[in-house]
């Protein structure tokens, strides 16, 4: 008997701006990622204020899921997917975000995607806003720094809830909302980059603006959850957190305090808002010490309390160490870097691989909130090189995923209520952090390269067949 529940949602995850392409097709408007160029392993991508002929914009074609969705979903079904986590591109539905009526062509596309999923017995898990803010809202309002975006977001939610009420049950309000607590979040999450053009690692940071933008997102999320609960009781509404597990590098008490603070700000703050529906006490000191004053309307407290989520989802790729000691070695990371852990190996991009940390994280989250959990992103970004036989033999990816699934099983034995697992980039797609195709995660290889070339053909990697077996045995056979 498997330790995983009988209705466990095995599947995979993607995001519209990273795999759909067709960036200006059928009435779609430009979103923030449509004005982000490709980067490389060693240099950052750029933000531009208009599309330029001398730069490559990877979201414009991506892997062209827009025209390949039937083929791709059939491959997901062949693997045995029970769930497919994807997102709706806001600018397909409302090209500027400010329209009063939705774009019918955009609605029709997602009708086809969800119908195709249902035909194959796959449950869609839909992220409403996954780094796909309409760029027009950046230009006019400086993104989520302005409270007006709550109304635009709700107009968008109401349109997609009504249209897909019989096709989608599971919804996530914002992807990795806690990225807004980090400087890079100005691009990825809050869109507070009006007038900026340049390397993404040089975005000017304004903490007051970022945390005010987050407040508006918290209210918008709560409004969407409350509206869904009132009008569509069949819906299950979740949050999504980029969980950056960290440990104190040493047993120095100062390191323990530093790590506790890092975990509070980076991980717990946003999920406390989503699950508990109120500002946690530890943020008062942080706001005071950073000269942050959150402007709230009188009704906000009640909205936040009434709009708490039904389940908690998160991404988990790696862990970091935190220290007050200046001589520690640095390592790379997902959104935020940290200090080197001597007990861990790292990926090609310097992300420290820590399967046991996933068990630890699942226990910490579940002990804190006592609501169902789902790991909706996890995976290994790597250079996938074809062998002499022309195939991708990605045993390193299988090893990574096997180790993490083993630790999920241990967490379930510990008592964690785990409802599903959707590894990231189940088909190769554009990296959000660098705009690269070379950083591949998928079970399915896509012939598309960083210079924009490639015929977009799909090929199964070794991990495709391995994951097929994992799903067929409900996680029992990991060999």
UniProtKB/TrEMBL annotation:
An annotated GO BP: carbohydrate catabolic process
PANTHER family in alphabetical order: 6-PHOSPHO-BETA-GLUCOSIDASE (PTHR10353:SF296), GLYCOSYL HYDROLASE (PTHR10353)
The protein's Enzyme Commission number: 3.2.1.21, 3.2.1.86
Similarity section: Belongs to the glycosyl hydrolase 1 family.
Organism: Faecalibacterium prausnitzii L2-6
GO molecular function annotation: 6-phospho-beta-glucosidase activity
InterPro entries: GH, GH_1_N_CS, Glyco_hydro_1
Pfam family, one: Glyco_hydro_1
GO cellular component: a single term: cytosol
Keywords: Glycosidase, Hydrolase
Enzyme class: hydrolase
PROSITE patterns: GLYCOSYL_HYDROL_F1_2
Name of this protein: Beta-glucosidase/6-phospho-beta-glucosidase/beta-galactosid ase
Gene3D superfamilies: Glycosidases
């Amino acid at each position: 008997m498997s330790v995983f529940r009988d209705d466990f949602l095995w599947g995979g995850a993607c995001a519209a701006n990273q795999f759909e392409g067709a960036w200006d097709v059928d009435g779609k408007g430009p979103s923030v990622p449509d004005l982000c160029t490709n980067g490389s392993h060693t240099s950052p991508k750029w933000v531009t204020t208009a599309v330029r002929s001398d730069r490559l914009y990877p979201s414009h074609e991506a892997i062209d899921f827009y025209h390949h969705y039937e083929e791709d979903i059939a491959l997901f079904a062949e693997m045995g997917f029970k769930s497919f986590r994807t997102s709706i591109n806001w600018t397909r539905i409302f090209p500027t975000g400010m329209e009063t009526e939705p774009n019918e062509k955009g609605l029709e596309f997602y009708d086809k995607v969800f119908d195709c999923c249902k035909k194959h017995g796959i449950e869609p898990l839909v992220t409403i806003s996954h780094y796909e803010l309409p760029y027009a809202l950046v230009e006019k309002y400086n993104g989520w720094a302005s409270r007006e975006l709550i109304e635009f977001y709700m107009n968008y939610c109401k349109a997609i809830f009504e249209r897909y009420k019989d096709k989608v049950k599971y919804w996530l309000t914002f992807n990795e909302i806690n990225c807004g607590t980090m400087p890079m979040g100005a691009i990825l999450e809050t869109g507070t980059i009006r007038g900026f053009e340049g390397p993404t690692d040089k975005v000017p940071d304004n903490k007051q603006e970022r945390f005010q933008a987050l407040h508006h997102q918290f209210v918008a999320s709560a409004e969407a959850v409350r509206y869904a609960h009132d009008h569509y009781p069949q819906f299950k509404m979740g949050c999504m957190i980029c969980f950056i597990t960290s440990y104190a590098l040493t047993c120095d008490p100062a390191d323990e305090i530093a790590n506790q603070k890092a975990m509070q700000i980076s991980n717990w703050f946003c999920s406390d808002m989503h699950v508990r529906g109120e500002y946690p006490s530890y943020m008062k000191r942080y706001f005071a010490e950073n000269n942050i004053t959150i402007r709230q309307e009188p009704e906000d407290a009640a909205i936040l309390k009434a709009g708490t989520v039904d389940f908690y989802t998160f991404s988990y790729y790696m862990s970091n160490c935190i220290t007050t000691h200046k001589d520690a070695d640095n390592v790379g990371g997902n959104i935020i870097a940290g200090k080197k852990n001597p007990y861990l190996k790292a990926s090609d991009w310097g992300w420290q691989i820590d399967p046991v940390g996933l068990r630890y994280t699942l226990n910490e989250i579940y002990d804190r909130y006592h609501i169902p959990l789902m790991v909706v992103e996890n995976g290994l970004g790597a250079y996938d090189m074809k062998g002499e036989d022309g195939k991708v033999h990605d045993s390193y990816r299988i090893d990574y995923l096997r180790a993490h699934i083993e630790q999920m099983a241990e967490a379930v034995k510990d008592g964690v209520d785990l409802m599903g697992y959707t590894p990231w980039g189940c088909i190769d797609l554009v990296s959000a952090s660098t705009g690269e195709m070379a950083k591949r995660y998928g079970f399915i290889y896509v012939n598309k390269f960083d210079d924009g070339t490639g015929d977009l053909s799909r090929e199964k990697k070794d991990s495709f067949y391995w994951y097929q077996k994992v799903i067929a045995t409900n996680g029992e056979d990991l060999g």
